[in-house]
Amino acid sequence: AMGRAMGLAGLLLGLVLVPAVLVSTSLRPGAPRGEAEPAPADWELVAGAVPEDSLWPLPQWLRTSPRQLRLAPGRFQLVHSAGSSAGSGCAPLQDAFRRYYEYMFGHSRRRRWGRRPLAARAELSELSELQVVIEAPETGCDSYPHLGSSEAYHLTVTEPVAILKAYEVWGALRGLETFSQLVHEDDYGSFLVNESEINDFPRFAHRGILLDTSRHYLPMKTILTNLDAMAFNKFNVLHWHIVDDQSFPYQSIYFPELSDKGAYSSNLIYSPADVRLVIEYARLRGIRVVPEFDTPGHTQSWGKGQKGLLTPCYNKGQPTGSFGPVNPIWNTTYDFMTKFFKEISSVFPDAYIHLGGDEVDFSCWKSNPEVTEFMKKQGFDTDYAKLESYYIQNILDIVSSYNKGQLVWQEVFDHKAQLKLDTVVEVWMANNYANELSSVTGAGFSAVLAAPWYLDYISYGQDWKKYYRVEPLNFLGSEEQKKLVIGGEACLWGEFVDATNLTPRLWPRASAVGERLWSSRNVTNLEDAYERLTSHRCRML
Amino acid sequence: AMGRAMGLAGLLLGLVLVPAVLVSTSLRPGAPRGEAEPAPADWELVAGAVPEDSLWPLPQWLRTSPRQLRLAPGRFQLVHSAGSSAGSGCAPLQDAFRRYYEYMFGHSRRRRWGRRPLAARAELSELSELQVVIEAPETGCDSYPHLGSSEAYHLTVTEPVAILKAYEVWGALRGLETFSQLVHEDDYGSFLVNESEINDFPRFAHRGILLDTSRHYLPMKTILTNLDAMAFNKFNVLHWHIVDDQSFPYQSIYFPELSDKGAYSSNLIYSPADVRLVIEYARLRGIRVVPEFDTPGHTQSWGKGQKGLLTPCYNKGQPTGSFGPVNPIWNTTYDFMTKFFKEISSVFPDAYIHLGGDEVDFSCWKSNPEVTEFMKKQGFDTDYAKLESYYIQNILDIVSSYNKGQLVWQEVFDHKAQLKLDTVVEVWMANNYANELSSVTGAGFSAVLAAPWYLDYISYGQDWKKYYRVEPLNFLGSEEQKKLVIGGEACLWGEFVDATNLTPRLWPRASAVGERLWSSRNVTNLEDAYERLTSHRCRML
Question: Name one GO molecular function term (chains A, B) (predicted).
Fold first, then answer.
């Protein structure tokens, strides 16, 4: 299916075929795709060259003209516009200029530059530059993207220059991706772009990919490659589920024993330099890195390097030698967490930390006589969800004191921990997640939806359609509630994923989630998506 | 799970711990694995070094001793024994010596050779050579492996030399793989092997992997890498499903238009040189290449480069412009097939060609008035299975005239084509395949089982266990019938497979099939298999 010829189908699906500049093709989202007029004789020139049939995710608003411009790789430039508040000192833009130039003209294509274009091509006008204008005085060049960052951009491609306007650099990065998707190479090695105008912005502010580096260690290269793929799909959050029961690859500065003893091996870790590299590589692509340090459950690996942290389990009044979740009743636990999260808050610049809180198994707590006594003293009776909430609230307070916002898995909300109103609840349980979204937003909390997008659950065939069909706001609730859904995440848990299969397993399946979270709500046509996704996959490869 | 420490678990699972030379550990297959004696104090030396816990597929008979020998990469040699009928002119062995030396000592390990071994290691005796003896006067060095080839070998590893005896080179290749699996590196970079004796042979003669290069083109590199993986798992047949409806990448010498017009593109083809390389690369690993040219269905791509070959479909008495299966009523069809299969018979040296014959859709034949008339004339009434059989029997006769044996998919048998008794029927339909095995072998035909091993059907979790649990002879039939099951195949159809995901999708899942087809029937312990497979996967990586 990869080898399919593209484009002609697109011609027949709704473009107005008048060869004039910027004749509107009508707004694409929601516009019915009817039968086209018969193509005029000169149509061969642009067959296979309909740009919007390879855009992914589809922009909010676009129009394109059949009129094409040529790009000469040796002359074409990506430049800062004179009126821009960003200049050559702006690292994210400088890096993106180099990167997108390479995507458009680099690799195997370079060989072909020697060839003379066909005469027909030579008659086309040339696009000489893409000028980038950053409009905000605070460009973002030297800071990190955050939940409130602007990713909107406006792109016009007309002779002789294309202009990309964005409020902040983050929008410019999205626009550069789109521009690179518009540029295509014809069969003769000419680089072409159709005159176009695009006005674009994300539907949801939080568009995440969860990677799990505990079940299997992921080499740095795999993580960085995934950040590239995320940028191709306009994702903006790497949810780094960095540690879990199975291993603790995060090398802590204060507590190096955690990875010394809890990692699979001494070289399967993320050093402080590795973490900095991931964060900076992500920043240059407009991607936030939200680390998850999941407690009190999912912490077996923590216990190896931090004695006394986990709850000793008992059987018939005797310690079994096994350990359960983090011990919520000792002050030493909170002393450790205070210091640990101080480090995490400083190492990870993002305004949010994910604190986990999912799947806490109460059986070990129930077995432990000290815990039982503590429960009595606190008046928790036998409601261990209260103990869990007691623990979580302590952790939330600690992390709040470092001025960090918090994400938590849905159980923390379900078990009625008293959450600060700016806590973000991540909904992951597949069963009846619409109802959970109603509850979470009904209580006034922001929500991130992950439940329908557990991409580690593989199945035969084109399951991307299942992910694509999800409508995140399809739940009972007021307009105010709907606004509290700030986005979603595609999760690739690591039980059966490592460097050998991560990329082909995640992409392009996650692209379906990417478009759902970026594009307009009414972009739902599966056949259209299939055509564009096929083309997008080729480009990603 | 990849990072798991291996070995100690193995120590606790049934080895006799007396440190003497070749003290029997009892035959492994079927031997109950009880609790072991407490380890003597010197056990640290061999912890993590129990060779049989990483062997895959498990040999038919083995015993190992805790006594270890060292190998010095700078001195150790793989050599022809003085008494061998093969010598330095034997390409498969020479190539395998180089290859297995590299597997054992090569890659990242080379760096470590500078290190001095620990004193404890220095006390171990050295294994200086592996001597290979080929016993048959016809070694196989200059021929191709075939269904009747001997793959048996006998391996003894004792100070000062290891001896590998095999009747033909094909057995020696299997023994070299096993020897390389016995050699392991300890934590200090020393190469060690336990004194051992292994007597081994395959349970089934036909152990295949089906690759589909039509739904997606597979680059040469992917095919060759798969041949390496097949050798690691003692597979011996590449079933090359080379063309199908979607594309015709085989570049024919007589009919170059078939790929000129039927391939996805002019560079997504297998040239005669490519095909020769696949065949020779496979031969050097003891692997047969059985090409499949599936007709009369699955042939849409043939029609592009060979006008008049396919049946024109009709609607209301008019040709629709679409085509169905190969046209079985015209002499030109058989003229073409005679010439085509003459080429195929000469290009592919294997004694068998797979002729397909599956999933023939009768609707186009039914629509065609010429076909209807032909049916009447032949007295087929409206039984299109008879027309199918008429076609297939013509093809079988053509191919027989070139002295080639034939494999066919089960429908050819089901639809009662008159088959020569040496035809091999491949059973692929998942529904009630045991019954089909009874019928096929009951009629006196050989069978290859593929039905339970369609590895393109993916699902979440450890589905290798499902493939591993299959017992091919679990059907009603006499001993004679059971003997007619000559083997099986793991099939990776290409609808959702290409170079980006083939290797991690096929391996190590196909390894489960590899052990089922090679090892003794009673090798069925899943926990034991899990441990060995984990280790084997690491080694393959």
Answer: beta-N-acetylhexosaminidase activity
